[in-house]
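User: Please fill in residues for this 146-position structure.
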């Protein structure tokens, strides 16, 4: 009986500890580089020269992360539901500067983001309206007398 009470108390403390460390989720837009978090955390490596190694890591099952510009904060990319691929939106942008919009979570010093959109930071802007310049008129050819 005493063992059961102790187990219940421990379980309750663990549950409170888990729930108590959560920051409120909020939608944010962040800018930074999509990186392999293992290479970054272990060796500080990131940048375009890491592209092949990052693809190898992702293809082997590594989850990508966003290394935030200015702060150096690392946000793991998360799936919204269990079984979803968190790398789906980021795969084409490894080791590239991007803008990520999504829901940010933090617990125990670890940050994550469920991305709803990822765009390259220096994406070319599409023209907002087609050109209003009318096409040039066709030249009229007249016969020439010899």
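Assistant: Residues filled in for all 146 positions:
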């Amino acid at each position: 009986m005493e063992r059961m009470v102790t187990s219940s108390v421990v379980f309750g403390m663990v549950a409170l500890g888990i729930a108590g460390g959560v920051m409120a989720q909020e939608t944010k837009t962040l800018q930074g580089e999509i990186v392999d978090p293992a290479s970054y955390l272990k060796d500080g490596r990131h940048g375009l020269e890491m592209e092949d190694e990052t693809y190898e890591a992702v293809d082997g099952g590594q989850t990508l992360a966003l290394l935030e510009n200015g702060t150096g904060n690392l946000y793991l990319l998360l799936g919204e539901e269990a079984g979803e691929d968190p790398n789906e939106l980021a795969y084409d942008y490894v080791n590239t500067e991007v803008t990520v919009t999504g829901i940010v979570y933090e617990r125990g010093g670890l940050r994550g983001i469920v991305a709803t959109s990822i765009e390259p930071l220096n994406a070319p802007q599409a023209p907002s309206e087609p050109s209003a310049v009318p096409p040039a008129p066709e030249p009229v050819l007249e016969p020439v007398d010899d």
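For context: The first strand starts at residue 26 and ends at 35.
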